[in-house]
Amino acid sequence: MKLWGGRFTKPTNELVEAYTASIGFDRRLAKEDLEGSLAHVKMLGRCGILPQEDVEKIAEGLEELRRRLEAGTLTFDVAQEDVHMNLEKHLIDLIGPVGGKLHTGRSRNDQVALDMHLYLRREIDEIGELLTDLQRALLEAAETYIDVMIPGYTHLQRAQPVLLAHHLAAYFWMFARDAERLRDARRRVDMMPLGAGALAGTTFPIDREWVARELGFSRLYENSMDAVSDRDFILEFLAAASILMVHLSRMSEEFILWSSAEFGFIELDDAYCTGSSIMPQKKNPDVPELVRGKTGRVVGHLVGLLMVMKGLPLAYNKDLQEDKEGMFDTVDTLKGALALFAGLIRTLEVRRDRLATVVAEDFSGATDLADYLVRKGLPFRQAHEAIGKLVLHCVERSCFLKDLTLAEYRTFSPLFEEDVFEVLDPRRVVDARNVRGGTGTEAVKAQLQRAREWLEDWSEHGNGNLARADKG
Ligand code: ARG
Q1: Which residues pair with 163 in a beta bridge?
Q2: Is 33 in the pocket of ligand 1 (CB under 6 A)?
Q3: Is residue 109 lining ligand 1, measured as CB closer than 6 Å?
Q4: Ligand 1 centroid vs 112 CA: distance in angstroms?
Q5: In whole angstroms, what is the distance from residue 434 CA to residue 447 CA?
Q6: What is the CATH number of domain 5-104?
Q7: Hey, which end of the chain has fewer CB within 10 Å, N or C?
Q8: In this structure, what DSSP letter does residue 104 have?
Q9: C-beta atoms surrounding 157 within 10 Å
């Protein structure tokens, strides 16, 4: 017998039952559903809608269900359609018909909205913790390798050498904005929809403010139709999650490239790699590859829910049941990626020797050489032209700028003097860029200090502030 069976004369078609049921996935909301029901029934008692003895029986029943849920002994039945009706049915089986009073002044529509808000609020907090830890791992690595230079690229062509710490810190700040985006989305997850009823509110004199306080919500929905039919709080989470995954995916791509023989900048720890079933020499960067790959599904969930929402009339429509699986999968995918990346970064090895050779063997000092001529009075455009020709000369002779003699330099410009060779030293090229936000060692140290302060602020007040870093 269905909880809504009164209006029906025939049993539900089996295929319909299987097709419309959500218990296979919304059972993940059982904890939140019980928490919401407990607050609801206490409120019904306080408002004199239910007698106190009924409230106590129901509350005890809900507590027992909570214990069974934690012990893993609660069973769910597809015939009961979703988590809400499964739990209500369990309650009635447990404490008798009085259990049927729980749903007074409530609909599954506001109930499921409440569950989702409770669930997502908790998960955003957990994701925030994992993200902070990943930022810490990045910062530790940046500090450990503060002396290491790597080639900096544009168009994936060598451009100018940078500090590895500077490169890693770039991701730190992307993640800082991701943390802020999640925190901002959380403000709109932190809203209480219960009391909206099916769509129009309820005839019972309920106290929505009390329920909101009891469940720790800082605001409540002002419109019952809005409360049961919008899912923008999930969309915002999915959008923030998608941007965060895209950042992780870009970092993945670099780690994959950097650990290849062609780059050889880093060595991923054995514990974070896997082998090949046929090629004995292989050590594959599966973790960053999968993070890069799984970015597709997270962005897909965002687009999927946007499409679910785009044509829906107010208020509740069954389409909204489609909001859950993508959200759950995004939470799981994101948490997995964040936890793995923190470990991956903490265990990877930077190949210092190789990088020392790599940064010395390219033309990435060319801009500084042009600036050298500019400082001697040549207009930048002419300096650019002269160095361009110099580079071409080297390319034709298969050598680098540092390999030419002063006499050769002078054939390109009489302004060259003995000090030209100092300018080409990659360390000088890096340290010449001590502008705020630049790659010079002093500038990067100051940047890492600001990153530390951001982290401290964030973990202390949960309120990191990029504006603060702006003020210096
Ligand atoms: N399982 C449903 C969902 O996830 C719960 C709400 C059902 N409401 C309804 N009017 N059928 O959306």
Answers
A1: 149
A2: no
A3: yes
A4: 7
A5: 11
A6: 1.10.275.10
A7: C
A8: T
A9: 10
CB 217 within 8 A of CB 192: yes
Taking each helix axis from N to C end, the angle separating 52-71 and 83-95, rounded to the nearest 10 degrees, works out to 120
CATH 1.10.150.20 fits 119-195+220-357, yes or no: no
Pick the CATH number of 366-423 from 1.10.40.30, 1.10.3810.10, 3.40.50.1100, 2.60.120.260: 1.10.40.30
Q: Please give the Cα distance from 355 to 131 (Å, whole number).
A: 29
Tell me, using a 6 A CB cutoff, whether residue 132 lines ligand 1. Answer: no
Which one of 19, 32, 83, 109 would you pick to mutate in the ligand 1 pocket, going by the greatest count of ligand atoms within 8 A of its CB?
Answer: 109
Whether ligand 1 lies within 6 angstroms of the CB of 316 is answered as: yes
Sign of dihedral through CA atoms 457, 462, 468, 470?
Answer: positive
Which residue shows structure tokens 């054939």? 411
Region(s) of the chain under CATH 1.20.200.10: 119-195+220-357
Assigned token pair, 134? 């990943």
Decide: helix, strand or coil at residue 252. helix
Share of the chain above pLDDT 70, in %: 98
Domain boundaries for CATH 1.10.275.10 within the chain: 5-104
Token readout for 76 is 């769910």
The closest of 28, 23, 37, 61 to 211, measured between CA atoms, is 37
**pLDDT confidence band for 471 (50 / 70 / 90):** very low
What 3-state class would DSSP assign to 425?
coil
- State pLDDT tens for residues 306-345: 999 999 999 999 999 999 999 999 999 999 999 999 999 9
